[in-house]
Fold Histidine--tRNA ligase.
Amino acid sequence: MSKSLQAIRGMNDILPEQTPLWRYFEGTVARLLDNYGYKQIRMPIVEFTELFKRSIGEVTDIVEKEMYTFEDRNGDSLTLRPEGTAACVRAVLEHGITGGGQVQKLWYIGPMFRHERPQKGRYRQFHQIGLEVFNLDGPDIDAELITMTWRLWGELGIRDAVKLELNSLGTSESRGRYREALVEYLSAHHDKLDEDSQRRLKTNPLRVLDTKNADTQAVLVDAPKMADYLDDESRVHFEGLKARLDAVGIPYVLNPKLVRGLDYYSKTVFEWVTDKLGAQGTVCAGGRYDGLVEQMGGKPTTGVGFAMGIERLVLMLETLEQIPEEISRQVDVYLCAFGEEAELAGLALAERVRDQLPNLRLQVNAGAGSFKSQFKKADKSGALYALILGDDEMAQQVVGFKPLRGQGEQQSIAWDALAAHLATCVVQG
Ligand code: ATP
Ligand code: MG
């Protein structure tokens, strides 16, 4: 194929053999979110560039080097969303649905775009399920978010492979005091820092904490600790969160270097990490952002949220072989009809059955074909049963009912009785 007809690097097709697993994952999360009382919101994929600059922060990796930004025909600068929180905050403000302290528990799903170096678990178009809660400021809701993800890992069968890392960044005041102390300490060791950290020291010093550079990490061993600068309010909040996680029995590790890449976090930050995916080990990350709404022009409104990367979680299900068997079977019953008259009768019969069993996955053979070829297709479809309509069946107004997975002999079922019969032998989702 000519080069111009390839997908963009880092932007992947999700092929039909992969979509059952995606839908299983997405369906499981959606059901859980419904059950906990979260409502879905859908935002546009493109926003004004300014939105992301103002919310995510000018000196973050995303805004500095990862955004897909372009000018549209009006000359407006637009950006493909790199994450969901900014647009979600914009939407709740625009529609006034968090005004007067109204609580909103929202979730979204969809593609995000970041110009990163593509590798396993890191793509340029990737998908997130994210969640944002507004106007609940206690540790109880932070705990609910984490508890819900803990339940999700349990349902997916990957709980043993993920670890919760926690930190508190304090209020912006205490973080400011900490930042000063950190800058003072790091400046005294300036020459030992890697180049990137030297730059971050000037622009976004907290981010030096999550450096991967060994020399800088050595310098950080004796650096001031955020925990020593936490204000009382944040300390009480953090204790409240930990007490709740202990009550549910969710293990966690405190990671004082966890700062998250985005500017807007305060108090609680957390990440679920795994060692099963190589370098791209964070599968879900989030935290509290009590100042963001105000920073974006709204009234003071607290917020907390997280986002999980669908590609990484699907990869985990594959790696850990936690793929439920039933999701790969897409067909319950396959109808074969031989001859034009039987095809017409088969079509009408199939529709009658579908009226009565709307959840039945019934596939009607298309493209005619010999007995042998239709039967082969029925078998390959994965169906549990084949329905057969030939001359004999037409004459008697019955349908041949043949188990394909070795449970019993073929039998004849009257057309009128077919739906009732299927209802007894196919478990419908
Ligand atoms: P990382 O440190 O891996 O770059 P991040 O802190 O930039 O992650 P967030 O902005 O917190 O990521 O996004 C939440 C989640 O979305 C991540 O934990 C990850 O699972 C997923 N994610 C982020 N960037 C990508 C990407 N380029 N490709 C695939 N998944 C991603
Ligand atoms: Mg990143």
